Every structure is written in C-alpha cells, then in structure tokens.
Amino acid sequence: MYLSHPDIVLLLHPILAVTLLFPVLGLVVNRAWETRRRRLDTSEKSKIPASVGPDHLKLGEFFTAVVVGVSLLGMTRAIANGIVTDQLWSKAPFQVVFIALIYAATLASLVLLYKARQRMWRGIFASLTGMGLVILGFFNNWVFRRDNEWYVSHFYFGLAAALLMIFALAIVQDIYRDRTNTWRKIHIALNVIALVLFVLQGITGTRDLLEIPLDWQKSAVYSCNFDPNSPDFKTCPTPPANK
Ligand code: HEM
Ligand code: HEM
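Above: inputs. Below: predicted complex with protoporphyrin IX containing FE.
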C-alpha cells in the first residue's frame, strides 16, 4: 500500500461521508418522499404507515449532526496543518485556544439546539452553530475555499448544505404548528436545493481527492507550475534522465 499517515488522515472525511452520510441521506429522502405522498393521499386508508413523518424527523435530526460533524472534520486537517506550519502555539497561543473554543462552542450550540424548545433559543443556537462553521472555515485562510471559482467549490457548497440542515433542525416545530403549510413549503424548497448541493459535494469532493497528491508524491507534484498566467502553466520540471 502506498498510503502513509497523512494520507490516511486526509481520507477520514471522505470515508465518513461515503459510508455514513450518503447512506443516511438516502433514508432521509426516502422517508421525506413517503411523508409527502401520505399527506397528499386523500383516500381513506393510505398504504403508507403514519410513522414515516416521525421517522423522517428522527433520521433528519441524526443527519444534521452527521453533516455538521463531517464538515468540521473536512476542515480539521487543514486547520491542524495551519497551526503546525505557522507555529501558532509558540507565536500566538491565544489563537490556538480561540480555535479550540470555537470547536467546543459549535458542538455545544448544536447540542443545545436539539434541546431548546422556545423559538428564540432555537434561533440563537442555530445561528451560533452556523457561525462556528463559518469562523473555522475562514480562519487564517487555512481551509482551501477556491474563492476565485466559488461556483465549483467543495467548501462553499458544503458550508451551504450544512447551514441548510441546521436551519431544517431549527424550524421543526414551525413545520408542525403551521396550519397553512408555509413552513413545510419553505422546508421542501430549501431542502431540494440542499439535495442538489449534496450531489455536488459528491462530485467536487471526488475531484478534490484526485487533485491532492499522495504524501510521497507531494514534493514532485508541487514543483510543477500551477500559475494559469505563466507561460509554463501545467508543466513540471523534467525528471532526471534514467540511470
Ligand atoms: C436533504 C434533506 C431533506 C429533504 C429533501 C427533506 C424533505 C422533506 C419533505 C419532502 C417533507 C414532506 C413535506 C410534505 O408533507 O409535503 C419533509 C417533511 C419534514 N421534514 Fe424534511 N427534508 C430533509 C431534511 C430534514 C431535516 C434535517 C429535518 C430536521 C431535523 C427535517 C424535518 C422535517 C419535518 C419535521 C417534516 C414534517 C414531517 C411530518 O409531517 O411528520 N427534514 N421534509
Ligand atoms: C455531503 C457531504 C460532504 C460535505 C458536507 C463535505 C464538506 C467538506 C468541507 C466543509 C470541507 C473543507 C473545505 C475544503 O477543504 O474544501 C471538505 C474538505 C474535503 N472534502 Fe468534503 N464534504 C462532503 C463529501 C465529500 C466526499 C464524498 C469527498 C470525496 C470522496 C470529499 C472530499 C474532501 C476532500 C479531499 C477535502 C479536503 C480535505 C483536506 O484538505 O484535508 N468530501 N469537505
């Protein structure tokens, strides 16, 4: 096997996305579809059990935690790498403590969002969870965001999808209470967009994985020319002649 320790760390995030996140997404969407079909089925006895709505909710709650966790994990290798290469612990230890606090606050806000019942608190904890993801994603420009090509960026699509899941969790009670179904319609519209974003995450994530070299190949690959304005764009130093 050609994998070394940094390669395995890099793979943890895609592994969790593929083996846990996407399968759970399939279940969430299946129950969502059944919930809708059951609600719109006007016949006396629907063949679809009444449990599909609560099932969708339970899976959705779990799914939000998985998406937030996988997104944090996606950023963590870059952040840890930034701390080490910038020697932040010796140069600005308070920033390291700040980063650790933001991680803790993000997770704590998510936990409190699950527990909060009052509308105001749900709004506050949802905003804090989302803010945590944004702050970590933009901290010191460590996470690769693809700013100049944001429309094909794994970072921006992933962040948007995570924020939409946090929002879905925040409005659960509104969906149930609202007799006019407005919140339900908002939920459907936003999460159809989220579904597209998840597909794009599968596409942009696999692309990114292909672009990142294996650890032992890095010195060779990064000596190539990545500057689109240079006449030598996409060329690499010629390897030494075979002995
Ligand atoms: C990609 C993810 C998701 C999609 C595509 C989706 C889509 C849907 C759809 C189509 C419905 C049925 C609407 C209708 O009755 O016509 C629904 C209902 C609902 N969704 Fe989601 N949803 C997603 C994620 C979530 C999440 C993460 C949560 C909360 C944590 C959530 C909470 C709910 C609730 C509470 C209902 C009402 C269920 C009921 O009537 O018993 N959904 N969703
Ligand atoms: C819905 C699922 C996913 C979400 C929400 C998500 C989210 C994220 C986020 C927020 C980042 C940090 C920004 C960045 O470096 O671009 C990231 C990094 C990354 N993701 Fe994903 N991702 C998902 C699925 C995937 C999949 C399926 C793959 C590959 C098969 C993948 C591969 C990567 C790679 C290679 C990185 C860079 C990691 C690093 O620099 O250490 N992701 N992801």
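The two ends are 26 Å apart (CA to CA).
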